[in-house]
Structure formats: structure tokens, C-alpha cells
Amino acid sequence: MNSILINYSLSKDINKNRLQTLLNGCQSDKYKVFLNIYDFSISKNVKEKLDQVNIPKNIKISVENSDYENLENYIEIVSKTILQYSDSVSYCLLNETISLEPKSIDEIDFSVFDDGNYGFLYFDYDINSIRCFIKSYGHNGSVPAIFFSAKKTLEKLSNGKPITSILSESIGLHIPERLCTIYSNDEK
Fold this sequence. Notes:
There is one protein chain. By secondary structure, the protein is α/β, with parallel strands linked by helices. It has a single domain, classed as Spore Coat Polysaccharide Biosynthesis Protein SpsA, Chain A, CATH 3.90.550.10. About 20% of the residues lie in helices and about 30% in strands. The chain has helices at about 15-25, 45-50, 75-80, 150-155, 160-170; strands spanning about 5-10, 30-40, 60-65, 90-95, 100, 120-125, 130, 145-150, 170-180. Strands 1, 2, 3, 4, 5, 6, 7, 8 and 9 form a nine-stranded mixed β-sheet that branches. A hairpin with a 2-residue loop joins strand 6 (about 120-125) and strand 7 (about 130). It starts with a strand and ends in a 6-residue tail after the last strand.
């Protein structure tokens, strides 16, 4: 079974319902999902909350309590751990305001990464109950959820800015479907 690595940064406390929503979005029948949660919140309560939620099958969760003052170094922190998941087909970086739709991972065809020209996949989303459609060309990196080619990420890791390099030097494929939801700060 191929694997996907999803990294979530949580800068605020999270309630168990919201955590369950995040976990449900990482659910997959086709892939083993490695979910790394970087808890930058003040209370550091994610590990405690994991005991109160249902963890979907095929998800292996790791929680790293991180210092809030290092939140700006999130990409750098994640980059140091990516080598452990070098056999994954794709990596994704998310934060607590974004939830993938349940089983949406299974709707993504990651075989596009077999073509070395493609470096990332992105898709449409909802925000505040409004559907947001993204144009299929001229991507500028402002999309909230992107799956990156693991191979491209590993190639670009040595330059210190793998995400920026992939976005500027690779082709991105737009999937014209709503596969995630963005929550405003006041939504639970």
C-alpha cells in the first residue's frame, strides 16, 4: 500500500469535534496515511484529545509538541522529518483552519507524479460556505491545500526552500473538485 504524509500545524487549542473532522479528512482506503501533527498551541492538548476521538483505519499519527515561537519555522521543522517518509508518493502541509473532505484522498490520482514535470496538485474548496473555484492555469501558490510530489520534494530539500522551488519550477495540476473546507476563526 502506498503512503501519503500529511503535516498539520496547530497554532491554537483544538476541541475534539474539530480534531475528529481533521482526522476524518485524512481517511483513506487506498493509501496508508502518516499524519504528523505539530502542536504549536499554548495548552499542547492534542495528545490528550486523541484519546477522545475515533482514529480512522490506515492512519498512523505522530504528535510533536512544538514551541509557539517556532511557528514561523514550520516548513523548516517539517523538512527535517520528511526524509523518514521518503517512500511516500505525496506530502501535504495544512493548518487547523483546513479540513480535507472525508475520503477525498482516494479521489486524487497521484500517478500524475510519475511524470517528472508535475510537482504538485491543487483543488477547489469551500470557505465560509462559499464554493471557491480556482483557475487551472497560472497558479501563484496562494491555494490553501496542495499535495506535493514526494520525489520532487526530496530533490529540492537540499536548497532549503523545497516548497517555493516546486511551486516555481514544476507544473501543477488542478483538480476541479471541492476536496477541502476552510474554516474561519470563529467556526468550530
